[in-house]
Amino acid sequence: MKVSTQEKFVRPVFIQLIGMSTNKHHRHGFDADRDAKKLHSACKGAGTDEKKIIEVLSSRTSEQRQQIKQKYKALYDKDLEEVLKGDLSGNFEKAVLALLDLPCEYEARELQKAMKGAGTDESLLIEILCTRNNKEIVDIKEAYKRLFDKELESDVKSDTSGSLRKILVLLLEATRDESQQVHTELAEQDATELYQAGEGRWGTEELAFNVVLAKRSYSQLRATFQAYEKVYGKDIEESIKSETSGDLEKAYLTLVSCAKDCPGYFATLLNKSMKGSGTDEKTLIRILVTRAESDLPAIKERYQQMYKKSLAEAVRSDTSGNFRKLLLALLH
Description:
The protein has helices at 5-10, 12-21, 32-43, 50-58, 62-76, 80-87, 90-99, 103-115, 122-129, 134-148, 152-159, 162-172, 184-197, 206-215, 218-232, 236-243, 246-274, 281-291, 296-307, 311-318, 321-331.
């Protein structure tokens, strides 16, 4: 199947395949028993052998890390997380603990933290819920239920309001069309509806936007955005910016960005997390850990194209110590 360069970055299914096939996680020669013992010896005695911890955790898939955790518990009657928590600190500890969760569990915890206590971190809700495919959303919902004995949807409903709540609840239904087919007529029809709902009248009619952005396949959305630009002479992002604001604008722009170029969206976020003074380590950890086994190869490629340096170089100059070593091992 020949795929154009531009298409290569935007076809989610294809990206998933790239992610799987170029995944450097060593599936062969895996031995949970040996790894559990190695981690145990790394944490035993006076000092901690961080090098061993990095070596084991960065070279395993998340499924394999689950097996290591079970084996550790069986051998030493202790939770690996608790042992590592006691031995590590700072961002290195955060990244290690993130790796010990399945991505869906880690995302469920992040979402719960974003809604806990006073105030809600809407940006984080948007980043996770507007960028995941149906299966990922279903997995996150199940993990949320398992970990917190609550429905993610009801927490999102009670922690958000208005237009943002509507689009997030729609995305949580996980009913996006994921086929590769493009219907030209539908694209033209949707483009007209979006225009009439936004630019064409005062006050944006969000329903049309919500349905199109949350339910259509990525390839269908790209056709719609092209039709929109052709007929109305401006790109969909411009219209969204002029018609909406705040969190709703952010959610719509994230959905558009992901439909057009998901790896590019994450590359931009990573760049932002390392730009200027101070590093947003939470975002760095979240993206590198949760995308490691899906589209990280494509994200690295896009980062290189967009910023003329490798993601590893950026991480190297923006982090330090064992935290840096672990992230670079994940990017290897």
